[in-house]
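Structure (tokenized):
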């Protein structure tokens, strides 16, 4: 067994035992595929600030941060005290509350394109509902999405996600998924425009993230072109801000890049750690969902979050977080920007110093690490999947970083306000140590 796996197993016997039990009751031992990584995942029982602790007592600097949710860190004070009070009030009534109205008003005030919104409980549901509105509005069927983009596991969008992309993403998908969901390449303006024009007569929507999967930044002008061409085609421009919303700026990626999507989706940061998603956008489009409009039911887009929409922790926690972000925006967003820049540059330099070919992508507080296999250009999610060693990044690199006390996702992750300078130094140092181990391994193998 490789030395890094021996170390991993020696440090985490409690997690190994839990994983063995988990496998007997959950296929693959998990309920969401990215939570498995080889040889077995760690199990944590505590999280605070920038740190998590596993059941064997090992502490890690967390870069996963609840799927990029916790922008202030784990259990941040402005949210923790409100959640404490909320526990006294209740958890879920399924009846309207004043907090839902106040939260919706705050979001519409702070997010440029949000003229009206509806809450749900996940990003998967939000993007599914955005497409339903787009199809109701246009009467068309085709959706364009970025090859390599992830918008959740709804039938329409769980396609063209991972390399090789000519193979369906999942068993059990209806044939309409392949027929009506088509791909574009991120950062390829000519190809994207050509696809929009080609499908225009039946094009309901283009759905895109401002920052590509693995946090690849958009080339200047790309998003504006996609927005303009989508409108020209009479289709709905949907910006998926599930990761970027309230993270890249208070007004999200749309504020940062000067976009005005027709519809947008949010999740993650929005709920301050509780399950929450939303679809928002132009008043006339959102009005298509209004059950009080008097129109017949086949002219109303049926969307809504179901049983658990508007749960108290999400409404009260999210509202408290948003108010804090608004009050401290001048401090928070520049600080996140600087932390992200420092860790990206630091990690890349530390690894290259040991001769490891590495590329860090990212924007603001987000970053990923890729290991190119050769000199082919890597500038979008598909080329990262095709030309870099994703299996190594998600397997050996992740395990080695865990051995050094860092929990990464996609080789990096999301820094939060809780990540101190010492944390960033530790991440950079650990990356250098792992690069030295990798270089030694390559040398031993005579490569
Ligand atoms: C950009 C984007 N959209 C949608 C989703 C789906 O959100 P959820 O996991 O809340 O269903 C995700 C989740 O990772 C995402 O990153």
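Design, position by position:
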């Amino acid at each position: 067994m490789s030395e890094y796996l021996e170390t991993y197993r020696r440090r985490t016997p409690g997690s190994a035992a839990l994983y063995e039990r988990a496998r007997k009751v959950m296929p693959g031992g998990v309920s969401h595929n990215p939570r498995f990584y080889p040889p077995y995942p760690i199990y944590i029982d505590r999280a605070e600030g920038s740190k998590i602790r596993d059941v064997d007592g090992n502490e890690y600097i967390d870069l996963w941060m609840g799927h990029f949710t916790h922008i202030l860190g784990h259990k941040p004070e402005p949210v923790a005290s409100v959640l404490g009070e909320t526990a006294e009030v209740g958890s879920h009534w399924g009846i309207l509350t004043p907090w839902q109205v106040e939260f919706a008003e705050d979001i519409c005030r702070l997010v440029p394109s949000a003229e009206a919104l509806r809450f749900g409980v996940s990003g998967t549901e939000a993007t599914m509902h955005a497409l339903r509105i787009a199809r109701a509005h246009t009467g068309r069927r085709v959706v364009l999405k970025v090859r390599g983009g992830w918008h959740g596991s709804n039938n329409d969008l769980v396609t063209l996600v991972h390399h090789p992309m000519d193979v369906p993403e999942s068993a059990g998908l209806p044939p309409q998924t392949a027929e009506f969901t088509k791909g574009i390449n991120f950062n390829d303006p000519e190809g994207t425009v050509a696809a929009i024009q080609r499908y225009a007569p039946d094009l309901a929507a283009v759905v895109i993230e401002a920052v590509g999967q693995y946090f690849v930044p958009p080339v200047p002008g790309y998003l504006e072109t996609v927005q303009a061409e989508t409108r020209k085609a009479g289709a709905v421009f949907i910006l998926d801000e599930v990761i970027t919303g309230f993270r890249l700026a208070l007004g999200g990626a749309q504020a940062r890049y000067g976009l005005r999507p027709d519809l947008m989706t949010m999740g993650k940061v929005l709920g301050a750690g509780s399950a929450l998603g939303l679809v928002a956008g132009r008043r006339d489009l959102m009005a298509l969902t209004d059950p009080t409009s008097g129109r017949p039911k086949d002219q109303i887009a049926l969307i809504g979050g179901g049983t658990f929409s508007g749960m108290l922790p999400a409404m009260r926690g999210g509202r408290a977080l948003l108010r804090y972000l608004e009050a401290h925006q001048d401090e928070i967003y520049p600080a996140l920007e600087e932390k992200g820049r420092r860790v990206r540059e630091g990690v890349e330099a530390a690894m290259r110093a040991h001769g490891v070919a590495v590329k860090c992508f990212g924007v603001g507080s987000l970053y990923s690490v890729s290991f190119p296999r050769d000199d082919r250009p890597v500038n979008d999610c598909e080329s990262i999947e095709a030309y870099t060693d994703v299996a190594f990044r998600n397997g050996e690199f992740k395990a080695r970083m865990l051995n050094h006390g860092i929990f990464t996702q996609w080789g990096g992750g999301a820094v939060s306000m809780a990540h101190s300078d010492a944390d960033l130094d530790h991440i950079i140092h650990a990356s250098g140590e792992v690069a030295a181990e990798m270089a030694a391994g390559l040398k031993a193998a005579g490569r």
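Reviewer-requested clarification: Residues 67, 122-124, 127, 150-152, 209, 240, 242-243, 267, 277 surround pyridoxal-5'-phosphate (CB under 6 Å). The mean pLDDT is 96.
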